[in-house]
Amino acid sequence: MSRPILLTGGAGFIGSHIAVEVARAGHTPVILDNLCNSKASVLDRLRTIVGRPVEFVKGDIRDGELMRKVLREHRIAAVVHLAGLKAVGESVQKPLEYWDNNVVGTLRMLEAMQDCGVRSLVFSSSATVYGEPEQLPITERHRLMATSPYGQTKLAIERMLCDLSASDPRWHLCLLRYFNPVGAHESGLIGEDPNGIPNNLMPFVLKVANGQFKELSVWGGDYPTPDGTGVRDYIHVVDLAAGHLAALQKLDTMRCEAVNLGTGHGSSVLELVRTFERVNGVKVPFVMKDRRPGDVTSCFADPSLALSRLGWKTKRTLEDMCRDAWRWQQSPAARGN
Ligand code: NAD
Ligand code: WQD
After folding, report:
1. Mean pLDDT across the chain
2. 8-state DSSP, 36
3. Contact assessment for residue 138 and residue 261, using Cβ atoms and an 8 Å cutoff
4. Which of 16, 181, 198, 320 is the most buried (most CB within 10 A)?
5. Domain 4-185+234-263+300-315 falls under CATH 3.30.1360.120
6. Catalytic residue numbers?
7. Residue 287 scores a pLDDT above 90
8. CB burial readout 8-46, b (16+ within 10 A) else e
9. Measured in angstroms, how far is the CA atom of residue 220 from the centroid of ligand 1?
10. What pLDDT is attached to residue 337?
11. Of the candidates 331, 31, 27, 28, which has an alpha carbon nearest to the alpha carbon of residue 191?
C-alpha cells in the first residue's frame, strides 16, 4: 500500500537518497527542507531518477504551524527525520544554533506530530553518540557519551524520543545510528555537495582527485592500526537509504529502538585512498600530518541487530563507494550546474 512519508531534511545528501528508495518502494516521499545546506535543483534530478515529480515543501521544522499543515494536508503516515545541522567543528563555535535547530526543531516537530496523531518516526542518529569507543565492534548497548555539541544534540534527541515513547505506547520510534555514510547514487545525479572546504574524508579526496586541492592531509599516521591511519566503518549511502526503508517496514513492531547502520568492517584512511585510486584510475596525492584533535583511533559497527531486527545488511563495497562518489563528483550537478 502506498504511504506518504515525510522526509525532513530530504533535500540533503542522505535524504535525497532515501527519497529515491521510498519512491521505488511505491510510497510517496514528501520532502520538507529549509535548504540551509542543500539546493532546490536536487528536485529536478530526483524527478529524473524516480520518473515523476517528488513533492517538496520549503520550510523549517521549527515552524509548528507549517508542520501541522504539511502533516494534515499530505496525510503523512510516518516521518523520517533528517533535518539538522551536522558539522562537528561548527557546533563547537555555534552551540546555540545547534541546540536550537536540532533539539528545539525536533521538539516543535514532535509537538506537531502529536497534535496530528502521526506517531511513527525514524530518526537520523549517529555513531557519534558512542564517543570514544570502549569496545569494538560497537553494539547498541555500548555506553553513550557525546564529545561535541553536535553529539550532545543527537543524544538529547534520542532521550527525548525515549521519554515520549514511555509516555504513550502509541508512538513507534526507531533511532538509526549511522556510521560513516559516503558514496552516491549510481546514476551520478545525486550525492554529497558540501559548501566550502570539506572536513570529511571522502569529499576531500574527491576534490583532490579533481584538482581543486593539491593534496590530502592524512590526520595521523601513528595510530595503533595496521597502517597507522584511523579506521572507520564507511557505508554506501544507497545501502543506508535501504536501511531506512527496512526500518519503516518494521516500525509498527517497535516502541523506541536504537539500531546501528554500518557494514561491520573498518577501513583505514590509506585503504580508502588506495582503493579510490585503483578503481578510478586517478591519483590522490597525500601528506602525513599530526592527528586531528578529537579523532578516535577506530570506530566500526556491530550491525547484527540491523540484520535480525530489520532484515537489512549492506550490499555495497568500498570499491562501489569510491566509484559512485567519483562518478557523482564528475557530473555537472556536483559542480553546481
Ligand atoms: P545534509 O546537511 O546534507 O542534510 C540535512 C538537510 O536538512 C539539509 O538539506 C538542510 O537544508 C536541512 N535542514 C537543516 N536544518 C533544517 C531545519 N531547521 N528545517 C528544515 N530543514 C533543515 O546532511 P546529511 O549528511 O544528509 O545528514 C542528514 C542527517 O543525518 C542529519 O541529521 C545528520 O546529523 C545525520 N547524520 C549524518 C551523518 C553524515 O556523516 N553525513 C552521519 C550520522 C548522522
Ligand atoms: C574519517 C577519517 C580522519 C579528513 C564525522 C563525524 C561523525 C559523523 C561522520 C555525523 C578519520 C581522516 C579526514 C581529512 C583525514 N557525522 N581524515 N583527512 O571524523 O569519523 O566522523 O563524520 O554524525 O559524527 O565526527 O569522519 O570523514 O571526518 O574522518 O585523514 O582531510 O579520515 O582523521 O580518521 P569522522 P571523517
Report:
1. 97
2. T
3. no
4. 16
5. no
6. 150
7. yes
8. bbbbbbbbbbbbbbbbeeebbbbbbbbeebbeeebbebb
9. 28
10. 53
11. 331
